[in-house]
Specification:
The complex is a heterodimer. Chain A is α+β, with helices and mostly antiparallel strands. Chain A is built from 16 helices and 18 strands. In chain A, α14 (518-535) packs antiparallel against α15 (592-602). The two termini of chain A are 134 Å apart. By secondary structure, chain B is of the alpha/beta class. Helix content of chain B is 39%, strand content 21%. Chain B is built from 5 helices and 5 strands, in the order βαβαβαβαβα. In chain B, α4 (91-97) links the parallel β4 and β5. Chain B is globular, with a radius of gyration of 13 Å. Chain B starts with 6 loop residues before the first strand and ends with a helix. The A-B interface holds A 410, 413-414, 417-426, 428-429, 432-433, 436, 443, 446-447, 450, 454, 457 and B 14, 16-17, 19-21, 23-24, 27, 58, 83, 85-88, 105-110.
């Protein structure tokens, strides 16, 4: 059981030694112990021995077995004493502790039944031997020989694991009952001690083992912890990564879903919008004449959706009168890349007419190829309602104009007739007073005075009338004459349509702005356009054409010209044209040009008229451009409105 | 003799007429009074004495025809010569139809007025 037991010395060992040279009984003399005179107990020695054992047990439990051997040797006055223990396999005994003469043989071993220990354990009783070498020749090597040997079993946890023995090498020393008592007591004590030692040792070992195990576990745990930490970190990282990735994916998926939904929605919106607004869209690659249409455009043209669109196909639907327009548009589009805008008609198979408004944006791709993207709106409904509205409006305007002219005329007549009435009455009275006999000169003088006063009153009526039209002080703002003129042209469209007048405009691109009252200037322009229309109302032998032109004039002036092909005027009457109440018209008042001239003069400009070389007349005004005036606001896109100038107004 | 002259009253919102007509009427041999409104005439003590009324059609407040109706209600049967600065040819027949002696458009001549007055006052 102890390490020392496993160490070998130079004692000869022969496992083949025969057993039982003499019977056990022949060497036993245990019974004699009771018969031998027993020496007196030496309690003091005994106690000392036990105390020594106890302190050995307390101080150095590892040496307790040797202490036991020493104390047995001492207390029993033996020549040798020791402790033999079974090896773990219980096949051999070894001398775990030895004191006395045999002390040098400590650690010696012998097979279980090659010595007295085996027999003691087999019988489990104390035994006293006499010259045991007779039975156990194997022990002959242990010198001096044992005369007597007293052995008691040694128990640990109730199990005999060895023996404690005392040996007398001399015949004179004979063990007695007292020796047996002492040996048994010490054996019991040793058993307990050994048990404790064993327990302690076990405990120690256990503790050590446990500590070791714990250390190992701890190390393992540490390692594990580290590993776990590392792995956890990695896991956390990868989880986080995964989570992030997942989230990113989710976001992306959601984003994509949303985008898809939005796309679908906007596609739906677009389709719905195109449907509702009767607007189709198209793209046109000029080089290849590759044309793509939206579904709505197919519907507008009433072609089967998906049919390959060609210019030729489009041409089949375009109103024959508008074919030149289409060709002109294509020609222009193939030329320079620019935005363009057209209005033309379609003649449908059922002979109905559709009005289309087309706007296209031109661009070039990287290879410089032209492409147009545009929208086509079916404006038929609008055009028809516009025409109806415009007709109603122009009728209303005509009525209003006639009515207001009538009212104006009447009120002017009333205003003038009152003083006239006074003048005539006074003059008549005056004559009658002068004709009396005797003449009433004082009365005549009085009435003559009143006549003069009424004459002045009539003159004041005319002055008031002029002031009425030019009452307002012109407000000065920057006016783009091109833009202002465009508005007037647009406003008076229906009137020209009704009178079948063609209007052409030539606007200077670099026209400086003028400072003035926009509305007043527009009144003048409107008046000039109306005069031109009225002047051509009787023309049947040539086109009723109005040309409106803006241009720079000398001395930083801007000039606007309205040229008509109407009846013209007598060159000698050119100056009288601008007089109040001068008119060549059947229903004219003769106020328009008078007021217009007042307005232009208040803008520090001049208004004049000249007969044309051919039929008609040209009215122009020129007003100074604004100081430091910039070129007209906005860039004037090359937009023609042929439907207006060439088609609609030509109707 | 003055007291025996027939009274001709003028009702017109225009000052020129009110100033000039009475002088001419007196040259014709009438007594004359001028009023600027129908209300002023009705409030005066001349209504019963007036042998002929020269009445403007369009006036602020009561118009000429309004006054004509008012006088009819009061059983004041005064001959009326309407005058107006509005040359509306449809007005004259309507006025004559409603009992006016004459309807003159301003400006009118002295002879036209005298003729109307003679028609209004045949007894004189």
């Amino acid at each position: 059981m102890t390490e020392s037991g496993r160490s070998r010395n130079d004692i000869p060992f022969d496992g083949s030694t025969p057993i039982g040279a003499v019977p056990l009984e022949s060497i036993l003399c245990t019974e004699e112990l009771r018969n031998r005179p027993s020496r007196l107990p030496e309690y003091e020695n005994e106690n000392r021995a036990l105390v020594a054992l106890a302190s050995a047990l307390a101080d150095s439990p590892r040496t307790v077995l040797q202490t036991l051997a020493d104390k047995v040797f001492e207390v029993l006055h033996a020549d040798s004493a020791g402790l033999s223990l079974l090896t773990k396999d219980e096949k051999r005994f070894y001398w775990a502790a030895v004191a006395g003469a045999w002390q040098p043989h400590i650690g010696a071993e012998a097979p279980r039944n090659f010595g007295p220990c085996g027999d003691v354990l087999d019988h489990n009783i104390p035994m006293l031997f006499n010259h045991w070498e007779r039975r156990y020749p194997y022990l002959s090597w242990a010198m001096p020989l044992a005369d007597e040997g007293l052995l008691v079993p040694f128990y640990v946890n109730g199990k005999a694991v060895g023996t404690i023995w005392a040996v007398a090498h001399d015949k004179r020393r004979k063990f007695d009952a007292e020796d047996l008592r002492l040996l048994e007591r010490m054996s019991r004590f040793a058993s307990a001690a050994y048990q404790v030692v064993g327990s302690i040792e076990n405990l120690r070992l256990e503790i050590a083992a446990r500590e070791k195990a714990e250390t190992a576990v701890r190390e393992l745990a540490n390692g594990l912890e580290t590993q776990v930490r590392v792995r956890t970190g990695e896991l956390e990282r990868s989880t986080r990564d995964l989570f992030d990735t997942n989230r990113a994916l989710e976001t992306e998926i959601a984003e994509r879903k949303r985008a898809e939904q939005e796309l679908r929605r906007s596609e739906a919106f677009l389709a719905e919008g195109q449907h509702l607004s009767r607007t189709g869209s198209f793209s046109w690659r000029v080089a290849t004449d590759e044309i793509t249409w939206s579904e709505q455009l197919y519907r507008i043209f009433e072609f089967d959706i998906g049919v390959r669109v060609t210019l030729e196909l489009i041409g089949r639907r375009v109103h024959p009168e508008d074919i030149p327009l289409l060709n002109d548009m294509i020609e222009r589009a193939r030329g320079a890349v620019s935005d363009f805008e057209y209005e033309h008609r379609l003649l449908m198979p059922d002979h109905s007419v559709k009005y289309l408004h087309l706007i296209a944006h031109g661009s070039r791709d990287r290879d410089g190829r032209q492409e147009y993207i545009g929208a086509v709106q079916d404006v038929t409904q609008r055009r028809l309602s516009e025409e109806a509205l415009s007709k109603a409006r122009s009728e209303l305007a005509h009525v209003a104009r006639v009515t207001s002219l009538g009212v104006l005329t009447a009120s002017i007549a009333h205003e003038v007739n009152q003083p006239l009435s006074g003048i005539i009455t006074n003059a008549s009275t005056c004559l009658r007073m002068l004709a009396a006999d005797p003449p009433n000169v004082d009365g005549a003088r009085e009435t003559a005075h009143r006549t003069i006063r009424d004459g002045n009153r009539a003159s004041q009526v005319i002055t008031r009338l002029r002031a009425l039209f030019c009452k307002k002080e012109a407000t000065a703002e920057s006016v783009d004459l091109n833009e202002a003129t465009r508005e007037v042209i647009a406003l008076s469209l229906s009137e020209r349509q009704r009178n079948q007048i063609i209007l052409r405009s030539e606007f200077a691109d670099d026209l400086p702005v003028v400072a003035g009252d926009r509305v007043q200037l527009q009144q003048v322009i409107l008046n000039l356009l109306r005069n031109a229309s009225d002047a051509m109302s009787a023309v049947v032998d040539h086109p009723r054409l109005v040309l409106v032109k803006t241009e720079r004039d000398e001395d930083d002036h801007v000039r606007l010209t309205v040229q008509d092909s109407g009846v013209g005027f007598d060159p000698h009457a050119a100056d009288r044209l601008f007089e109040a109440f001068y008119t060549t018209k059947d229903h004219g008042m003769g106020i328009g040009l008078c007021v217009s001239r007042s307005i232009i003069e208040s803008h520090h400009g001049r208004l004049w008229a000249a007969p044309n070389d051919g039929p008609g007349a040209t009215f122009s005004f020129a007003i100074p451009s604004a100081p430091g005036g910039l070129t007209g606001v906005g860039t004037h896109r090359d937009i023609r409105t042929p439907a207006v100038t060439d088609a609609a107004e030509n109707l | 003799m003055i007291g025996t002259y027939a009274l001709v009253s003028v009702v017109d919102d225009d000052e020129s007429v009110r100033e000039s007509l009475p002088d001419l009427l007196m040259e014709f041999g009438f007594a004359a009074r001028a009023f600027s409104s129908a209300e002023e005439f009705l409030a005066s003590d001349c209504v019963g004495q007036t042998r002929c009324l020269i009445l403007d059609i369009a006036m602020p407040g009561k118009t000429g025809p309004d006054l004509q109706r008012e006088l009819k209600l009061r059983r004041q049967d005064i001959p009326i010569v309407f005058i107006t600065a509005h040359r509306d040819e449809t007005v004259r027949p309507r006025m004559l139809e409603q009992g006016a002696v004459e309807c003159l458009f301003k400006p009118f001549s002295d002879t036209a007025l005298l003729k109307a007055l003679n028609a209004a006052l045949p007894a004189s």
